[in-house]
């Protein structure tokens, strides 16, 4: 009995010893950290210092990070805070066994308050740090004071004392701490092999600093920061740069001022920090004395304006022009019997409507750009509200052209609907606006290049590019205004005009049905059918009342055909008309690289349901032989990105390639790891040649 008791006690003692050893090992394995520190006088900010447990025996370093959390609208600053604010700083002279500390700074954001621009961080920020140790086998005492400036509409300067004691050789790696450290390090700009020819020129006469750089992959929406360690650089204030993009080259021009008088930056060593979408990098440069010119930027702008003119003109013959063809021809027909002066003014009013509509689009994109939202050509068709309003307007246009309603107004009254039914200049102005908005689902040669340049440049240049696009699209109207005999050359007015008008009215109603079909991406199928039934019923009832039952019968047949047409286009691949669609893989940049590493070819198709050009490419090329068989072959991976509704991932992918609209097609492969971009309008030869070229192993 006594023996069993002794045995039991020994077992319990052994278990206790094992548990103690486990707890001791866990305690030893925990990487040192300060815990979250908060100043009672300023509670919106908290901070901590954490060691990752990663040591480098060769360099005798230990990795760690400083993490700062800022509540609400509070922000702290970058190493060069801009026109206001104070950069965070740390004193660590009382530390022991530490030779030096490297502080790494994530790329900051720009903040503007009352006209004062600063650079810094909101929410939370991770500053990776490297501690250089004298002896890894001896204890280290990290004793430091962090001075942190944080601001909203007021600024507060707060101190946070840190103290840690550890022996580097005894540290163990913490996966959690390493993950946070890696997150912070991924936001720190580093030197990049993609950059070259980074130069800086100081023009003392103009008080400007100009930085030029080249990137192998080209630029999308670049931003440039400059700073340096000298007092001269620290005292200087640099404006937001004016950036000109010319292919792979950028030129950033800063206006420079200083509180200490006239700066002299010649010979200063600086850091040039660049950001372009997801790309961030930092390169050293030395400032040389010189004269700043802007001729290259001017040449680029002039070239893009020419591209925009051609793109706008070509937009008139793209597939999406058919919904507005009725309005264009109706304008010409309605000019019969008018004086040349009236014809000129009417067509100039339509052209003015086109220009004004492009300015509205530009303003819409400027607001999105300034607010940090996604921007792109035709992006308004991602909005259910926009599609709904356009559906209603096209239905009213069509019904009015079919003479289904007529509003009797007093002589001194003018409304928007009434102006559509007569020859008023305001009515033609609205028609021009409407034609523009309805044509934007299309892309065209030259158009994509011009729009990409416009959205990546400054706001005044953006308006200039969009004005050129508008003039290009309005050119047919302008030609008729300059040469009214074009409109007068048609046959004289007669019964045929009413028939043509009815034809165009039916075309406009078909457009309404197409737009209603696009709403299926935002509303349930039930509500689409309810809306279609109510609207169709009202229009057919008015057709019986105004015309005849026979006319209503023909119109109902047209409705049935048109309403089913959108469904047929989407589902015709399940019939004998076209084969089943390729087995599209969802768009993923990581997957592209994996497939290419496996020796496969990746065909990327970025599309949208509202993109008419995309539909034409699919039906006319991608689902036709021999392209279809090639996309379904074992060595080709078809990958698709659907931009019908907003998608940050797809928007980022487009912007990484300098595109702001669809369609967009790229072919990747062993011989083309960076991709072969295809033209907007596809054809069999272009697609097959790209797949063959990308698939040839280097």
Automatic annotation (TrEMBL):
InterPro entries, per this entry? Cyt_c_assmbl_TM_dom, DsbD_gamma, DsbDN, Thioredoxin-like_sf
Could you name the Gene Ontology cellular component terms for this entry? membrane
Q: Which Gene3D superfamilies does this UniProt record tie to the protein?
A: Glutaredoxin (3.40.30.10)
Q: How does it sit in the membrane?
A: Multi-pass membrane protein
Show where the Thiol:disulfide interchange protein DsbD N-terminal domain sits: 58-165
All copies of the Cytochrome C biogenesis protein transmembrane domain together span 304-517
The alphabetized UniProt keywords are:
Cytochrome c-type biogenesis, Membrane, Signal, Transmembrane, Transmembrane helix
Single biological process term from Gene Ontology? cytochrome complex assembly
Carries keyword Transmembrane helix?
A: yes
SUPFAM superfamilies referenced in this protein's UniProt entry, alphabetically: Thioredoxin-like
Q: Where is the signal peptide?
A: 1-29
Molecular-function GO term, any one: protein-disulfide reductase activity
Pfam families attached to this UniProt entry: DsbD_N (PF11412), DsbD_TM (PF02683), Thioredoxin_7 (PF13899)
Q: Which residues cross the membrane?
A: 304-326, 347-371, 383-405, 426-456, 462-490, 502-520, 526-544, 551-569
UniProt superkingdom:
Bacteria
The answer to keyword Membrane applying to this record is: yes
Localization = Membrane
| CDD domains linked to this entry | DsbDgamma (cd02953)
The name on file for this protein is Thiol:disulfide interchange protein DsbD
Please tell me the species this chain comes from.
Answer: Aliivibrio fischeri (strain ATCC 700601 / ES114) (Vibrio fischeri)
């Amino acid at each position: 009995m006594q023996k069993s008791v002794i045995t039991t006690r020994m077992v319990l003692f052994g278990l206790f010893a094992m548990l103690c050893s486990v707890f001791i090992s866990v305690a030893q394995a925990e990487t040192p950290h300060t815990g979250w520190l908060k100043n009672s006088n300023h509670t919106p900010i908290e901070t901590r210092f954490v060691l990752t447990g990663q040591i480098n025996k060769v360099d005798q370093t230990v990795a760690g990070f400083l993490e700062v959390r800022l509540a609400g609208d509070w922000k702290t600053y970058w190493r060069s805070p801009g026109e206001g604010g104070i950069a965070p700083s740390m004193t660590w002279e009382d530390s022991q066994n530490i030779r030096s500390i490297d502080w790494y700074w994530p790329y900051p954001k720009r903040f503007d308050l009352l006209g004062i621009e600063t650079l810094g961080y909101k929410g939370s920020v991770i500053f990776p740090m490297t501690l250089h140790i004298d002896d890894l086998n001896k204890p280290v005492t990290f004793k430091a004071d962090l001075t942190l400036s944080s601001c909203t509409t007021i600024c507060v300067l707060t101190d946070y004392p840190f103290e840690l004691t550890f022996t580097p050789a005894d540290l163990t790696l913490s996966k959690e701490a390493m993950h946070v450290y890696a997150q912070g390090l991924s936001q720190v700009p580093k030197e990049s092999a993609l950059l070259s020819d980074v130069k800086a020129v100081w023009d003392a006469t103009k008080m400007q600093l100009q930085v030029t750089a080249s990137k192998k992959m080209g630029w999308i929406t670049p931003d440039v920061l400059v700073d340096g360690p000298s007092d001269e650089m620290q005292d200087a204030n640099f404006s937001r740069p004016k950036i000109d993009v010319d292919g792979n080259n950028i030129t950033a021009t800063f206006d420079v001022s200083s509180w200490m008088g006239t700066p002299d930056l010649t010979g200063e060593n600086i850091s040039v920090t660049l950001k372009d979408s997801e790309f961030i990098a930092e390169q050293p440069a030395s400032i040389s004395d010189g004269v700043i010119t802007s001729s290259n930027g001017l040449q680029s702008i002039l070239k893009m304006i020419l591209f925009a003119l051609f793109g706008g003109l070509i937009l008139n013959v793209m597939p999406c022009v058919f919904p507005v063809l009725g309005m264009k021809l109706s304008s010409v027909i309605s000019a019969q019997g008018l004086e040349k002066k009236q014809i000129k003014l009417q067509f100039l009013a339509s052209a003015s409507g086109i220009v004004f509509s492009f300015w509205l689009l530009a303003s819409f994109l400027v607001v999105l750009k300034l607010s940090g939202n996604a921007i792109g050509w035709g992006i308004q068709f991602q909005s259910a509200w926009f599609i709904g309003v356009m559906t209603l307007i096209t239905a009213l246009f069509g019904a009015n052209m079919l003479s289904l309603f007529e509003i009797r107004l007093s002589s001194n009254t003018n409304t928007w609907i009434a102006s559509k039914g007569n020859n008023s200049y305001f009515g033609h102005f609205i028609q021009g606006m409407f034609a523009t908005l309805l044509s934007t689902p299309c892309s065209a040669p030259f158009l994509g290049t011009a729009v990409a340049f416009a959205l990546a440049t400054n706001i005044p240049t953006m308006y200039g590019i969009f004005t050129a696009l508008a003039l290009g699209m309005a050119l047919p109207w302008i030609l008729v205004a300059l040469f009214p005999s074009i409109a007068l050359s048609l046959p004289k007015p007669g019964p045929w005009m009413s028939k043509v008008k009815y034809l165009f009215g039916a075309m406009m109603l078909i457009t309404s049905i197409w737009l209603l079909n696009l709403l299926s991406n935002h509303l349930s199928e039930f509500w689409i059918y309810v809306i279609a039934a109510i609207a169709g019923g009202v229009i057919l009832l008015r057709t019986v009342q105004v015309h005849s039952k026979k006319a209503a019968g023909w119109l109902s047949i047209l409705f049935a055909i048109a309403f089913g047409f959108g469904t047929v286009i989407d589902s015709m691949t399940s019939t004998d008309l076209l084969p089943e669609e390729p087995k599209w893989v969802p768009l993923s940049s990581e997957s592209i690289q994996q497939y290419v590493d496996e020796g496969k070819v990746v065909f990327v198709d970025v599309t949208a349901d509202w993109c008419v050009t995309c539909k034409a490419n699919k039906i006319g090329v991608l689902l036709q032989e021999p392209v279809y068989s090639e996309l379904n072959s074992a060595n080709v991976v078809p990958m698709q990105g659907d931009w019908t509704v907003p998608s940050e991932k797809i928007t980022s992918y487009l912007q990484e390639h300098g595109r702001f609209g669809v369609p967009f097609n790229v072919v990747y492969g062993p011989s083309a790891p960076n991709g072969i971009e295809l033209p907007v309008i596809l054809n069999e030869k272009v697609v097959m040649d790209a797949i063959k070229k990308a698939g040839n192993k280097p």
